[in-house]
Amino acid sequence: MTIQILPPQLANQIAAGEVVERPSSVVKELVENALDAGATKIEIDIERGGHKKILIKDDGKGIPKDQLALALSRHATSKIANIEDLEAIVSLGFRGEALASISSVSRLTITSKPKTQNEAWSAIAEGLDMAVDVKPAAHPNGTSVEVIDLFFNTPARRKFLRAEKTEFSHIETLIRRIAMSRPEITFVLKHNGKTVKRYRSQCHLDDAISVQSGRISEVISSGFLEMTSVRSVQYDQINISVWACRPDMCKSVNPAQYAFVNGRMMRDKLIQHAIRQAYANSLHAEQQPEYVLFIELPADEVDVNVHPAKHEVRFHHARLLHDLIVTAFQDCIQDFSRASMLEEPVPIDSDKDFQAVSDQSTQPEVQRSSEYVGQVQTESQKQVKPDWLVTPQNYQTAVNETQIERSALVAKERSTPSPMSSTTSFPGLKPKSTGTEYQNRSSLTQLQLDECTIGTEIQSNDKNLSKLGSVGHLERTPQSVSSIQSDISKDTLQVLSVEGDAVLFWFEQQVWASRVSRLLSWSNDTKDDVGQQPLSSLSVEQKEPAPLLVPIRIRLEPEELSNLKQIDSLLEGIGFGFKQHNNFLIIKQVPSFIRSKNNNHALPEFFAELLRLMVKKHPSELISEQQIVELLVKPATGVNDLEKIIQELRILTSTDSHRSRLKQLAKPLEGRQLLQWLAL
Q1: CA pair distance 182, 184, nearest whole angstrom
Q2: Which of 283, 568, 622, 647 falls between 20 and 30 A from 586, CA-CA?
Q3: Where are the stretches annotated Disordered (predicted)?
Q4: Which secondary structure element, helix H or strand E, spans residue 244, and what is its range?
């Protein structure tokens, strides 16, 4: 056979083999044409899964009468004109093959009316017949493309079409992805005369994040938004927006995975590799990451003309983009580890007096809550907050509801020398009363120091009661000294003032109490599992490594990671399994006797205490396995600091020089600084 030029009809059918695979391929090409035409509303009407009819109707700019026939020719397009345009493509379509390919395997009718044209016109083409018949028609501004009897003239391809339901599911999935990329456009999907999906325009929302979040809620679900963290990364002219699902909620079947580059649906290998790398240490083998990713960059920085279906692209700065994607997703994942510290509320007695007084101290909680929540939330994301977490939204309501009870309680305090109220449910901390903002230190007149108690009684006018602060009262009992689990000397206890014979101190009550409660519960449960046997004789079963459902990531300094490397064999012998990645310690296995505990919160504290113990030891003195196990089942050594503080404060006011010296302090003193000062 000699070499010859193929007839146009045959060439079109060959091209149709690449462009038109199934009904969803036709829908994709036609909807993308509508988007390129500037449509704000697109209707997709399907009959029998696309076997019988596909109708795409838009309100775009339309096609003039004299260009209708030309639009059905091969390589005819209005989107590019020269090689420079090809190197900086801003439209979804550009090859000019879609309409010609579709018309060669179906009965195609295009009806269009530009705004500048008084009447609408239709162009009709059927199969191999290349002649185009143009007729007048009735149509509003915009374009309609109707495809009838797809593959009617190619029976071999038609018999490979799937069932009606299957083909429509492909179309529905396609429209879902296109709708995700264009939240400002309304999409209506119909099947056999019934409206199946309607995605409304989100342009009424204020900002880009809210607009896109609104469409995500429509396309996936509002529940998906609640499980995601949002990140926006900008570098030079590259903008990346990420909605990443928390690892423990990611699915293994049909995960929500949406990636777009300049508004184009994408399944690029580089993007997928970057996302898998970011989630590598957070997912099990069967889990898949769930995300919505938008990448915007200059058109000349990406080549979309490398794949027949345009599903893959080539980036000019691939490595840079890869690292930016990894960074954005890792930041989202790190948000979840920080957010987990806020998920467990502190149980508090429901006694009305204690509740009324504690409600007086809401303002510092507002400040601290805003600080913490700002780290893990975005304007489009809502995290579940503990009951005790006071936010600016619910703060004023809480103040108004407790105003009457607070006034009654103040009157009760004035008439009662030593009021007693309920205590919180965490051990070791017994609030005998709670105070308020320390606005005017000279207004605190009557402070007492009991033989066994460091505390305060405040007699003041109601105007001195404020919403800023929480005055703590620690009662020294054998149980409190032996069971409090907290590095209280580090950042929680602060001496505010000395007047008369007592010391008034303030602490971050809710944060500290939450930490104490979590660690005590974890430690006590662990003791129950270990029992009364010697720590050095833990059974092999108790030391058996147990995999964690979700690996725990702990950020450490390089020096701390180096210190842990010295004892990694000891930790592995106890049952820990971990690895180091960048500045993170990633814990994948724990000893079986702590497998069911709240390790998310307690393990970071355990490793922090372990590192502190290693620093205290002489360089030549190695830590033992028994000491590591003791840290797992016993409270941390911060109790000793609290014991010393209590002992020293009991005798502090017995010496005039100490009392006057402490009163001269210009700012609150941290517990550790207090210990150093008392040692002078």
Answers
A1: 5
A2: 622
A3: 410-438
A4: strand 238-245
Task: Compute the distance between CA of residue 377 and CA of residue 226 in angstroms, rounded to an integer.
Answer: 10
**In whole angstroms, what is the distance from residue 451 CA to residue 345 CA?**
33
**Segment 543-565, tens digit of pLDDT:** 788 887 677 888 888 888 888 88
**Contact residues for 265 (Cβ-Cβ < 8 A; gap 6+):** 177, 178, 181, 259, 311
CB burial string 208-242: b at 16+ within 10 A, e below: ebebbbbbbbbbbeeebbebbbbbebeeeebebbb
Quote the percentage of the chain above a pLDDT of 90: 30
One-letter amino acid at 507 equals F
pLDDT at 220 over 80: yes
User: Rounded distance, CA 306 to CA 86, Å?
Assistant: 12
Q: How far apart are CA 88 and CA 316, in angstroms?
A: 12
CA angle (654 as vertex; 652, 656 as ends), nearest 5: 90
With tokens 């929540």, the residue in question is 373
Residue 1 has pLDDT above 60, yes or no: yes
Calculate ∠ Cα 81-87-90, nearest 5°: 75
- Reply yes or no on whether the pLDDT at 242 is more than 60: yes
State the Cα–Cα distance between residues 352 and 610, nearest whole angstrom: 41
Closest residue by Cα to residue 105 from 18, 37, 233, 172: 18
Is the model more confident about 651 or about 461?
651
Whether the CA torsion 265, 267, 271, 277 is positive or negative: it is positive
> Which pLDDT belongs to residue 633?
65
DSSP SS3 for 107: strand
Place of tokens 């020398």: 417
Beta bridge partners of 587: 552, 578
Q: What is the DSSP string of 252-319?
A: SSS--EEEEETTEE---HHHHHHHHHHHTTTS-TT----EEEEEE--GGGEE-TTSTTS---EETTHH
265, 309, 313, 312: which is closest to 18 by C-alpha?
A: 309
| Domains of the chain, earliest start first | 8-199 (3.30.565.10), 220-341 (3.30.230.10), 352-513+640-678 (no CATH), 533-636 (3.30.1370.100)
Task: Specify the pTM.
Answer: 0.53
Alpha carbon distance 5, 645 (integer Å): 95
Distance CA 468, CA 448 (A): 23
Burial (Cβ within 10 Å: 0-12, 13-18, ≥19) of residue 81: exposed
**Residue pointed to by tokens 């909605």:** 243
Q: How far apart are CA 236 and CA 255, in angstroms?
A: 32
Task: Identify the weakest region by mean pLDDT among 213-227, 262-276, 319-333, 398-412.
Answer: 398-412
For the segment 74-93, what is each residue's pLDDT rounded down to a tens digit? 888 888 888 888 888 888 98
Q: What's the one-letter identity of residue 401? A: E
**175 close to 27: Cβ distance less than 8 angstroms:** yes
C-alpha torsion sign, points 655, 657, 663, 665: negative
Cα Rg for the chain, rounded, in angstroms? Answer: 35
Specify whether the CB–CB gap between 411 and 446 falls below 8 A.
no
Q: What is the 3-state secondary structure (H, E, C) of 601-618?
A: HHHHHHHHHHHHHHHHCC
| Closest of 29, 49, 31, 26 to residue 167, by C-alpha | 49
**Per-residue confidence at 656, pLDDT binned at 50, 70, 90?**
low
